[in-house]
Amino acid sequence: MQTAPSKKNLRCVIMPADLQQRPNLEALAPTLDWHQPNDHCVATVVEPGAVQFFDGRLFIGQISQLVTSPHYRPDLAWAQQQLQTAIAEILPRLAPLPVTAHHCLVAFSGQTLPLVGEMPNLPGLVLFTGFTHPLVYVPPLAQKLAHHLTGAREPVIDHLAPLLNPPQTEK
Pick from 47, 58, 69, 119: most CB atoms within 10 A? Predict the structure, then answer.
């Protein structure tokens, strides 16, 4: 959910304390039949949290739902009510602010690890996918990727980026 610029001053990033819900949701993804898509929601995770941008806008929480259809349209009114109820428990002054709800489709990979790789036919564009809690992991990983791409060896990139580091074959 997004607010208009607000005079409320958050001064920090609030992230959910229950860090096990999302991995449990992600662990279900490889068990689903993706060849038979439907709009049945398999699992839902409500993640109250908030971040404020310099212009005063607040972005409040997210709800993640696991479905197999790319055409699924979430019930945004229900999602907004769920997030406002959850955020009221930790940041009660934010809950009544007028908000606009947004949604986006996120893809899971069949891998258990996140992947990093250059986009085919788009040299220089690198995709990071499958990260739980990206605000925590992506910034330091992006720095390691930059070092790796400029010649410094970064073992974590070797581990996560099979596309950047294809296995060497003996001739």
Answer: 58
CA angle 133, 107, 53 (to 5 degrees): 45
User: How much is the pLDDT for 88?
Assistant: 95
The helix/strand/coil state of 147 is helix
pTM of the model: 0.67
HSE of 143 in the Cβ direction (CA atoms, 13 Å)? 4
> How far apart are alpha carbons 27 and 73 in whole angstroms?
22
Q: What is the pLDDT of residue 92?
A: 94
Residue whose structure tokens are 């806008």 = 57
